[in-house]
Specification:
Layout (H helix, E strand, L loop, with lengths): L2 H7 L16 H10 L10 E5 L3 H10 L5 H4 L2 E8 L1 H9 L9 H24 L3 E5 L6 H7 L6 E10 L13 H4 L10 H19 L8 H9 L6 H8 L6
Helix pairs in contact: 2-6, 3-7
Family: Belongs to the flavin oxidoreductase frp family.
Keywords: Flavoprotein, FMN, NADP, Oxidoreductase
Organism: Rhodanobacter aciditrophus
Length: 245
């Protein structure tokens, strides 16, 4: 173990922040750290919108699930998959760009995730806390209009950043034995391992909420698969030029 691994394994989502602003230039340093992430074929298909206007913060909060920390955090960023720059660049070389391929969507979305995780690690190394906001995809069309996103750009998630005003415990992860496979995908003992993990998560929620939350990992997965989750995303992505061809 070293300090980097210690930092990575100590990640917590922070939802309460002090009103202390980030020092001058630190946000730019965090974004530069994001740019250092791996990127498929050097496409660098990520743009970041720093939202500072109070009225836009308030609107985003309402559109992304009324999570108050979107408005309260010293910094709020929206990470966007951006293939517009790349299409424009290719066309300047004389290429007739083929748009809307599923691989373009995958590449851009993966690029954004890698970029944002670098930002997250850099932020935590500076004593900051953060929380990803997937609720950005609740109303992606309205959010795109608010942020004036052009075609071939879509908002993937948001991120609150600031100095923590809480000290939550690290949420237990799945046991390594069910995540790390040897040579081929195996499910040996997975059911028993997950059952044990469910008990671990149940104990965690009971302790964290003072007995007010009766849940576990499996119960937490149920809503994702018991109905159609954000069914509007496909139509929205096609409208933005990601046609899934």
């Amino acid at each position: 173990m070293n300090s980097v691994i210690d930092l990575l394994t100590a990640h917590r989502s922070i939802r309460k922040f002090t009103d202390q602003p980030l020092p001058e230039g630190l946000l730019e340093t965090l974004i530069t750290s994001g740019q250092g992430a791996s990127t498929s074929n050097h496409v660098q298909a990520c743009s970041v919108i720093r939202v500072t206007r109070p009225d836009n913060r308030e609107a985003l909060m309402g559109l992304a699930g009324n999570q108050a920390y979107i408005q309260a955090a010293p910094e709020f960023l929206v990470f966007c998959a951006d293939m517009k720059r790349n299409i424009d660049a290719a066309e300047r070389t004389g290429v007739e760009a083929v748009r809307g391929m599923t691989e373009q969507l995958l590449v851009a979305t993966i690029d954004v995730a890698l970029f944002a995780q670098n930002v997250a690690i850099a932020a935590e190394s500076e004593g900051l806390g953060l929380c990803y906001i997937g609720g950005i995809r609740n109303n992606p069309e309205q959010i795109s209009e608010l942020l004036k996103l052009p075609k071939h750009v879509y908002p993937v998630f948001g991120m609150c950043i600031g100095y923590p005003d809480q000290d939550p415990e690290v949420k237990p992860r799945l046991p390594l034995s069910t995540v790390l496979k040897q040579d081929v995908y195996t499910e040996e003992n997975d059911e028993a391992i997950v059952e044990q993990y469910d008990q671990t998560m149940s104990d965690y929620y009971q302790q964290r909420t003072g007995g007010n939350k009766d849940s576990n990992w499996s119960k937490g997965m149920a809503p994702m698969f018991s109905g159609k989750l954000r069914p509007h995303m496909r139509e929205f992505l096609i409208k933005q030029g990601f046609e899934l061809k």
